[in-house]
Amino acid sequence: MKPSIFRPHFPNPQSPNSQSTNSRSAFPFVFRPMREEDIPELMEIEQRSFPTPWPESAYRHELRYGTDSLFYVLQPQKEASSETWWERLKGLWQSPRSPILGYVGIRLLSDEAHITTIAVHPDWRGRGLGKYILLMAIERALKYRVHFITLEVRASNRIAQNLYTDLGFQFVGVHRHYYRDGEDAWLMRLGPLNEGAIVHLQELRRAVEERLQNLQI
Ligand SMILES: CC(C)(COP(=O)(O)OP(=O)(O)OC[C@H]1O[C@@H](n2cnc3c(N)ncnc32)[C@H](O)[C@@H]1OP(=O)(O)O)[C@@H](O)C(=O)NCCC(=O)NCCS
């Protein structure tokens, strides 16, 4: 995607993901682009999260060739601020890398972004991470002038449906027998993403960030 098609989004000055280095260092999680070396670790989450998981090759293919796709992971932020540079360097050598707690995929269509996948590690669910990941993904998608966010969800997946309706997604239709095992998919949509809707999403994000700020990791 070319930067020239970006539309101004509405940065939140208090957000840990805005440009303020001070506030960012205090937030306990990092939302960053997925890399190929993340795939083996996230496959464990994938296999524990979906009845018909994507294979590793699908993620590799998307990361290498998916020019219209964005993928992100969420990790705990490593504590570094109170250490000297030498301690931080030693830490890089010695400590295991931060685990991946969740991830999300987005496909950019003309004026729409489609959530292709989202999952949180089973041990980390129910604490607000899924909501945070989805809100961050929507924020990233907004930079590409999208006006709607769409997704499919299994008809039986009440937890995910609750997450989506909490954020303002609405049910817009059913794809009969959409999944390989024959289950129907609900098609859900968020938007139009006008300024009022974006401000509301920012408020939701601020609330979940506050919740995550106090999470013990
Ligand atoms: C769906 C999923 C990503 C949610 O992640 P999570 O970190 O557990 O979600 P959160 O803690 O942020 O919860 C967000 C909302 O989801 C709903 N929710 C979460 N857990 C729930 C539960 N056990 N029962 C009912 N609703 C639940 C609530 O509306 C919650 O909002 P609240 O915390 O304000 O009550 C996670 O359950 C998951 O990975 N599931 C397997 C993969 C999957 O189904 N992905 C969706 C494919 S469409």
Write a brief structural summary:
The protein has helices at residues 21-26, 39-49, 56-65, 85-94, 129-142, 158-166, 195-213, and strands at 29-33, 69-76, 102-108, 112-120, 148-154, 170-175, 185-190. It is of the alpha+beta class and 217 residues long.
Descriptive notes:
This protein has 217 residues and is α+β, with helices and mostly antiparallel strands. The protein has one domain: Gcn5-related N-acetyltransferase (GNAT) (Aminopeptidase). 36% of the residues lie in helices and 22% in strands. It is built from seven helices and seven strands; from the N terminus they run αβααβαββαβαββα. The longest helix has 19 residues, at 195-213. Residues 1-14 and 18-25 have low confidence and may be disordered. Coenzyme A binds next to strand 4, helix 5 and helix 6.
Topology:
Elements: H1 21-26, E1 29-33, H2 39-49, H3 56-65, E2 69-76, H4 85-94, E3 102-108, E4 112-120, H5 129-142, E5 148-154, H6 158-166, E6 170-175, E7 185-190, H7 195-213
Parallel strand pairs: 4-5
Antiparallel strand pairs: 1-2, 2-3, 3-4, 5-7, 6-7
Helix pairs in contact: 5-7
Coenzyme A (COA) binds at residues 49-50, 118-120, 125-131, 153, 157, 159-160, 162-163, 166.
